Amino acid sequence: MTTGSSEPALAASPYLKPGAAGEGATIDGKAVADQIRKEISASVALMKGKHGQVPGLAVVIVGERKDSQTYVRMKRRACAEVGFRSFDCDLPGDSTQQEVLDAVAKFNANPHVHGILVQLPLPKHIDEEAVLAAISVDKDVDGFHPLNIGKLAMKGREPLFTPCTPAGCLELLDRIGADLRGKRAVVVGRSNIVGMPVAMLLLKRNATVTICHSASVDMASIVREADVVVAAAGQAQMIKGSWIKPGAIIIDVGTNPIDDASRKLGYRLVGDADFDSCKKVAGAITAVPGGVGPMTIALLLKNTLTSAERFYEGKVSGGGGGERQPQPHWSTVVLGTLAGAAVVQGMVRRVLSASGSRARH
Ligand SMILES: Nc1nc(=O)c2c([nH]1)NC[C@@H]1CN(c3ccc(C(=O)N[C@@H](CCC(=O)O)C(=O)O)cc3)C=[N+]21
């Protein structure tokens, strides 16, 4: 395979499985996710030894959508495997808005819960915007709270949590050694949970970013410019090999079921990229399944661990610089147990913001 100067040069990586002669490599998201989960298990063991506590993740699901139940089951199993506590709230599909908000409020107030995830999509009669805004920003491990999304969109700001699937895409690019600076990145899809936030993350890494969507004209020629393609349109196999610049990296976020009589279940999962034709042209491409999907769950665990570390150790990670202050919810809980005095809380805040230092409770 030839690599032009504008394409990200990929060093050998244990997570790149070489393709057949002349074909691109496959990015093994499952292997990266397994590695991250190992790292998380080790951190949980440390936390248990030091604080006698483990991270806790609460998952709220409303209704009986089959796919949502599968994802939630996977998340709960993943929690158990790394030693987290998981907290369940399964609400019937005809629950009221208030019942969903009450479930969120209960987890906001529970000090053993460090992350809250409300499985999307919610039933139509529930106001998603109101529910996501009700999650304490300190426990917003999905990164969907408007304050976290707002900071993600702003230069020089860092959200407390980054949405899991977009963060998983960037983690994959990092772990295979892709350099994004000055590269052309094209995101196909503009959803709140993937397309938009992944574009923001690529921009923060100094890529030149284009977002394509259903109204884009001649999408193929736009995608052809890309050194990195993130496929997040939710359309099975829409991106063809003929759209791909030779050597480009393709991160495929799609998980679309298509009929397949040869499978036990009668279907199989495919991505938004047409894997076989894209692989022939790309430098590297993620598999589906086994690519971005497992990374989403690994990053959810990582965000939950980070949240628990902030709570028990006052650690602030993410390189946000001097602007970060202890967030209202955690500082109230922690300082409440330490001193119970609003005066002290105000003083500590002032000291922390003046020194621009990390929050140490
Ligand atoms: N609040 C919220 N947060 C989410 O993060 C969220 C959500 N709502 N709603 C639905 C989407 C979807 N999602 C996936 C997670 C794991 C896989 C995954 O691990 N997939 C496996 C295959 C799984 C299978 O075989 O069925 C893979 O790609 O290898 C896929 C998709 C998280 N989502």
From TrEMBL:
GO terms for molecular function: methenyltetrahydrofolate cyclohydrolase activity; methylenetetrahydrofolate dehydrogenase (NADP+) activity. It holds the Pfam family THF_DHG_CYH_C. Pathway: One-carbon metabolism; tetrahydrofolate interconversion. InterPro entries: Aminoacid_DH-like_N_sf, NAD(P)-bd_dom_sf, THF_DH/CycHdrlase, THF_DH/CycHdrlase_cat_dom, THF_DH/CycHdrlase_CS, THF_DH/CycHdrlase_NAD-bd_dom. It catalyses: (6R)-5,10-methylene-5,6,7,8-tetrahydrofolate + NADP(+) = (6R)-5,10-methenyltetrahydrofolate + NADPH; (6R)-5,10-methenyltetrahydrofolate + H2O = (6R)-10-formyltetrahydrofolate + H(+). Keywords: Hydrolase, Multifunctional enzyme, NADP, One-carbon metabolism, Oxidoreductase. Residues 163-310 form the Tetrahydrofolate dehydrogenase/cyclohydrolase NAD(P)-binding domain. Residues 27-142 form the Tetrahydrofolate dehydrogenase/cyclohydrolase catalytic domain. GO terms for biological process: tetrahydrofolate interconversion. GO terms for cellular component: cytosol. Homodimer. Belongs to the tetrahydrofolate dehydrogenase/cyclohydrolase family. Catalyzes the oxidation of 5,10-methylenetetrahydrofolate to 5,10-methenyltetrahydrofolate and then the hydrolysis of 5,10-methenyltetrahydrofolate to 10-formyltetrahydrofolate. This is Uncharacterized protein. It comes from Raphidocelis subcapitata.
